[in-house]
């Protein structure tokens, strides 16, 4: 489970705060193109929650990764 902090005023939600990092499952990535292994090379990936992020070429489907929720960027392998 994930802890989300929600601030309320009476019965109205005003703000929700996510953890800084969350673990997600990669469900789909594009295949690696030959020569795409440079240090700054990334490819699109779709996560189990529907979010699209850019991941390094070595990340494939069915892998767990950590995503920074502030930047919505790949942080590391889980």
Descriptive report:
The protein is mostly beta strands and about 80 residues long. The chain has one domain: Nucleic acid-binding proteins (OB fold (Dihydrolipoamide Acetyltransferase, E2P), Beta Barrel), CATH 2.40.50. It is built from no helices and seven strands. The protein has a five-stranded antiparallel beta sheet, with no helix packed on it. A two-stranded antiparallel ribbon has the order 1-2. A hairpin with a 2-residue loop joins strand 1 and strand 2. It is elongated and about 55 Å long. It starts with a strand and ends with a strand.
SSE order, as H and E?
EEEEEEE
Helical residues, percent:
under 10%
Tell me the count of domains: 1
> Strand portion, in percent?
over 45%
Intertermini distance: 15 Å
| CATH topology-level name | OB fold (Dihydrolipoamide Acetyltransferase, E2P)
* CATH homologous superfamily identity: Nucleic acid-binding proteins
Question: Main β-sheet: number of strands, strand sense, barrel status?
Answer: 5 strands, antiparallel
List keywords for this structure.
single chain; 78 residues; mainly beta; OB fold (Dihydrolipoamide Acetyltransferase, E2P); five-stranded antiparallel sheet; two-stranded antiparallel sheet; 50% strand
Give a concise summary.
The chain has 78 residues and is an all-beta fold. It has strands spanning 5-9, 12-17, 21-29, 43-47, 52-55, 64-68, 73-77. It starts with a strand and ends with a strand.
Task: Give the helices and strands, then pairings.
Elements: E1 5-9, E2 12-17, E3 21-29, E4 43-47, E5 52-55, E6 64-68, E7 73-77
Antiparallel strand pairs: 1-2, 3-4, 3-6, 4-5, 6-7
